[in-house]
Amino acid sequence: MKRFLTMILAALMLFTLVVPAAAAELKAFQDVNNSSWYAPSVYALVQKGIISGKSATTFDPQGNLTRAELMKMLACSVKTSAELAEYAAVKSFPDVSAGSWYAAYVNWAAANGITNGYSDGTFGPNRAVTRAEAASLLVRFAQKTGVSDLEPVKEKTAFTDDAQIAGWAKENIYICQQAGVFSGYQDGSFRGGNNIVRSEAAAVLCRLHGIEPLPKEQLPTPPKPETVAGTFRKTVAGYSVTGMELKGYRAGVILANDRFYQVESASSMVQRAGTEVVCNGPFFNNNGDLTTYIAAVVDGKALRIDNAHYPKKCYLVIDENGNASMQFLKICQTAKLVQDGSVVSQYEEVGCNFAFGDADGSRMVFTSLFGDKIPGTVKCAAVCDKNGVVTSVFDSDTAKSVSIPRDGFVLCQRHRRDEGQEYKWDKFFSDCRVGDTIELEVSYEGSTVQNIRTAISGGPTVVKNGQPYGDVSTYNEEGVTEVALYSSNAPRTGIGVKADGTIVIAIATCTFQELSQVMAGLGCRTAMVLDGGASTALYVNGATVYGAGRLLSHMLTFSK
Description:
By secondary structure, the chain is α+β, with helices and mostly antiparallel strands. The chain folds into three domains: 16-218, no CATH class; 228-294 and 458-559, no CATH class; 331-445, Jelly Rolls, CATH 2.60.120. The protein is built from 13 helices and 26 strands. The strands form five sheets. The protein has a seven-stranded antiparallel β-sheet. Strands 5, 6, 7, 8, 9, 17 and 18 form a seven-stranded antiparallel β-sheet that branches. A five-stranded antiparallel β-sheet has the order 3-26-4-24-25, covered by helices on one side. Helix 2 (39-47) crosses helix 8, helix 3 (67-76) crosses helix 5 (103-111) and helix 6 crosses helix 7 (167-178). It is globular and about 80 Å long.
C-alpha cells in the first residue's frame, strides 16, 4: 500500500504545473500594448517563466507560433529547467540537433508521447502551427500530463466552417471548444487551417492551465522607443531602393492648403509641415473631384473616415507610448448627445469629411478641413463650436449650404432614413437643442491596440506576417481596381513596420507584387502601398531625397 501511494505521489509531482520558486522579472515588451486583449495573458505566462519574447524587448504578438515554440511553452509549464536539461542530448528527430535551443523541449515532448512528428520522421521545428494542429497537440498534452481534464464547461456549438475542418482534428477542436480553451472568430468560424499567432497561443495556454491573466494595474509599462532615424540606398530583391527607417516618431498628415479636395506643391507642403520627414500619402483622384483614399485619426481626432467603401483596411498606427504597428481595423466614430451632464441619445457609424450624395442617408461630421460649407442640402444638422457645444440646429426643414465653423464641426444627415417613419437617428436631432453638447468618440474595431494616438490608412497590403502578400483580388478588396496602378512598372512608395516597431519607408520602381518582395526583404512584418508614379516623394530635414513630379493632395509627416 505504501509503495502504491508513493507511485501516485511521484506521478502527481511529475505532472503538476510548475510555478517557479522566484517569479521571472516582469520587463515590458515594446510591441505588447497594455490596452490589447492579450497583454494580461502574455505577461501572466512571462511571470511564470512559461513564455518569453522574440528578443529582450519584443514579443512579436502577431507572429506565427512555430512548432518548437509551442513545445517550449508546453514543456516549461510542467517541468523545471533542470528537469528539461536531461532531455537536451536525447535524439528524437533528425531535424532537431542536440545544440539547438529547442532540443530539450522537443525531445521531452517526444519522449512523453505529446508529438510524434511527421510521417517522414521529421519534426519541422520552424514550421508554423495551425489552429487545428494546436488544438490536437493541446489535447494530447493534457491527456499525457494530466494538467487538465478538459471537462466541458460550455455547450458544443458547431462552427460555421465545420464542413471544412479536417477529420483528424475535429474531435479535438470541439473538446477544446467545450472546455473553453479555444474559441472561434466573431463570424462563428474556427478556421483550423489558419496559423495560430503568439498572442493567441498565450491566451489559450492560460485557459488550459487555469492561469489568471494579470490585472491591468500589474502590467509593466512599455518604455517609449528610442528615437532613431536614417536614410538608405540599397539593392533589395534585385531592385534599387531608396528609403528611410524611423523609430520613436509621431506620424501626421498635412493637406494641400489645409483642405481636402485640393492640391499643392510637395515642396510647399514640406516647408509648411516643418517636420523632419515628409513622404507622399495614399492614392487620390486626379480627375477633378480630387477625392483622397486616406482615412486618418491624428492626435486622437478624426480627420477623415470612410467606412462605407472599404470598411476594414491596413493602417499605420502609433500608440500613446510612441510605439508603431500596422493594424487591420475599422475606425468607429460615435456621436453622443449630452444634456445636463447625461447622454440622452447616441448613434454609431458616423463618418467624417467624406463627400456624400443627396440620396445618401449617412451620418457625417464635417470640419473646416472639408471646406466652408456643406454643398447641397441637409435634412438634419447640428452646428457645434470647438468644445462640441451646439450653436444651431436644423431639423425637419431642409437647409441649404450649411456653414462649417472654422474651429468647430457640423454633424448632419442628408435625409431621414425612412420618410414618415420615426428612426432613432431622427430622434437624435429631434432631442438636440442649442446649448447641448455633442461628444465625438473614436474606437477601433479589429485592432489589437486601442490607446491609439494616430492611425493612417493606405493600401493595398503587400506584406503580412513578414511574407509577401497580395494579388488582384486583394488589391480590389482594398479599393485599387485600376489595372495600371498595380501592374505597371513605375515608382512605388511602400510603408511598413518591423517586429520591433521600426517604420520603414521605401521607394522602388516596380509593380505591387514586386514591392511585396522589397518590403518583406527590408524586414517588414506588415506593409502597404502608398501612392506612386509622379506622386512619389520623400523629404528629410527639408532636403529632397526623392522629389514629387506633380501637385499633391496630401502628405504624411513624421516628427520626433
